Amino acid sequence: MPATNNQTDTGARAAVLFLIAGPAGSGKSTLCDRMASDTGSFERVITATTRPPRAGEIDGVHYHFLSEEKFDAHIAAGAFLEWARVHKKHRYGTLASAVLGPLSEGRNLVINVDVQGAESFRHAAATNDLLRRCMVTVYIDVPIPVLRKRLAGRGTDSADEIERRMRTAMAEMLEKPKFDHIIESGTRDADFEALMGIWRMATKRHEKA
Fold first, then answer.
1. What ranges in the chain are assigned the alpha helix state H?
2. If DSSP codes are grouped into helix, strand and coil, which group holds residue 154?
């Protein structure tokens, strides 16, 4: 099973896998985009989903679009590092091949996950040397009043949806101590600079390994 292979490729010593988690409205997707676009040193992990492509989306570029049957087959084969059903509809997951292959080639990766996904990655890393060596988990922490203001300010969610997201956020915050690093969210630029600092620390750690 790819997720539990005990791989030890020395080319991955300099590679970093950033797992960025945080509540809706924390800016984690923006951070992932900036790590890929601004640094020129990171690639976003392409995840899989059972939802149909939206206009302009390309299979293998935005997502790996899978049928329900194909998704089931991947689960049965142990091909996912993590997966979940979102909002009781479509399923999303991270294929081990989309992570372990690039890391074994020394390529830096960044992925936006929820706290449950991060926990699944931790379980996988417990039996995978490559993943354990490269993985750095980061939680973007936003005070509840600020988070509520951000969600309301987006103007994209109903009042009921905002309340649902707030309840989810409060539950997710209980998982903060499990993360390697916590960024106390401020401005977008400040959050990005904090993440860059964590990258520098992770690089030095690898150099000493």
1. 28-37, 68-76, 96-104, 115-125, 129-134, 144-154, 159-172, 188-208
2. helix
- Share of residues in the chain with pLDDT > 90 (%): 81
Residues whose CB falls within 8 Å of the CB of residue 199, separated by 6 or more in sequence, listed in order: 16, 18, 35, 39
Question: Which amino acid is located at 1 in the chain?
Answer: M
- In the numeric block, the tokens 């997201």 are attached to 165
Round to whole Å and give the CA distance between 95 and 5: 14
DSSP classification of residue 59: B
Helix (H) or strand (E) segment spanning residue 184: strand 181-184
Tell me the average pLDDT across 110-135.
95
Q: 107 by DSSP, 3-state: which?
A: coil
Q: Determine the Cα–Cα distance for residues 139 and 197; give it in Å rounded to an integer.
A: 14
Amino acid (1-letter code) at residue 105 = E
pLDDT tens digits for range 92-116? 999 999 999 999 999 999 999 999 9
pLDDT digits (tens, 9 = 90+) for 71-83: 999 999 999 999 9
3-state secondary structure of 157: coil
Amino acid letter, residue 87? H
Side chain identity at residue 201, one-letter code: M
